[in-house]
Description:
- This protein is mostly helical.
- The protein contains five helices and no strands.
- Helix 1 packs antiparallel against helix 3 and helix 2 crosses helix 3.
- The chain is elongated and about 60 Å long.
Amino acid sequence: MEMNLQNKPLANRSLSFAAGVLFVCLSIVIMGYGAAVAVPEKMLLPLMQLSPTLALSLTSFITIGLPLTLSFYLLAVIFRRLFNMVNSSFLIAPFILFMVYGLATIAHNNDDMWYNFALTLSKLLPVLLCAIFLARQNVSTNN
């Protein structure tokens, strides 16, 4: 079955968005396993004395943010190899919506807005930077 040139961008965006929804499902599992990682007190105590928010954000970055970034990169590369073109902005959009919705829900019921913002940012920022990197890499390969 041949695809019209008119429908190819729509199919590309739809496929990228569906892959983004798949990434959100995968990210829930990764966040669950990352939250279950036990970090020794001896490693966290010096940072906790400096700033508890910094210590827990750094822990969240290492145990959740980096595995999320790696899985996002692998998912984007797999879909790029299979379907020749993946739109990174549509691939990352469901994850951003998921994280912002979670932040809004938690912040609405809690007084520690900056703490929750720092934890969300430590999970979202590496994945967002990876999406920007993939988008720029895609533009340079198209030219």
